[in-house]
Design brief:
Blueprint: H1 11-21, H2 36-43, E1 55-59, H3 60-63, E2 73-77, E3 92-98, E4 106-111, H4 112-130, E5 135-141
Parallel strand pairs: 1-2
Antiparallel strand pairs: 2-5, 3-4, 3-5
The structure holds S-adenosylmethionine.
């Protein structure tokens, strides 16, 4: 498996279930990998945190319920619905990446109002071309600076 199983992974749970059934026996190791979140930050040459501030990693489904309280930097994974559009009127920047770490990598960053339609277009094109997409983004609010 690629990526870092510490983030929204189901592989380890599946392996444990298989072992519990007792039909096969095996051992496995977890090798620390580079998560899409780390790749995203590195490719945009930014950090996930600002000085003495927290960051929250969450899902598109949770972001759709509202921007998390007490945090201005939010990393969003598992978002099939482009929930960032909901925040296009905020004073915020987005750092978006698709197919991170692969030859098809696409990066977009900037004020969310400007970047949002561009991401939407690129995402739709890429999805139509490849048949699937994996994307992750950091939303950085400024209004509470
Ligand atoms: C089930 S989670 C697994 C994440 C994995 N543990 C990791 O470290 O990347 C799947 C989500 O991770 C993100 N993701 C995984 N690989 C990605 C990639 N190469 N580029 C962008 N996002 C990716 C997407 O948000 C996707 O919806």
């Amino acid at each position: 498996m690629w990526g870092d199983p510490s983030l929204y992974d189901s592989t380890l749970g599946i392996l444990e279930e298989v072992l519990e059934r007792g039909a096969v026996a095996f051992e496995y190791d977890v090798v620390p990998g580079i998560s899409s979140v780390s790749a995203l930050a590195a490719r945009h040459r930014t950090g996930l945190t600002r000085v003495a501030r927290p960051v929250q990693i969450t899902t598109g489904r949770r972001l759709a319920e509202g921007f998390p309280a007490d945090v201005d930097d939010v990393v969003v994974m598992l978002d099939a619905h482009q929930t960032f559009r909901q925040y296009a009127r905020e004073d915020a920047d987005i750092y978006w990446g698709a197919y991170l770490g692969t030859p098809d990598e696409i990066l977009v960053s900037g004020p969310i109002a400007e970047a949002s339609p561009r991401i939407e277009r690129l995402r739709a094109e890429a999805r139509a071309r490849k048949g699937w997409i994996m994307d992750t983004y950091l939303l950085r609010l400024h209004s509470r600076d």
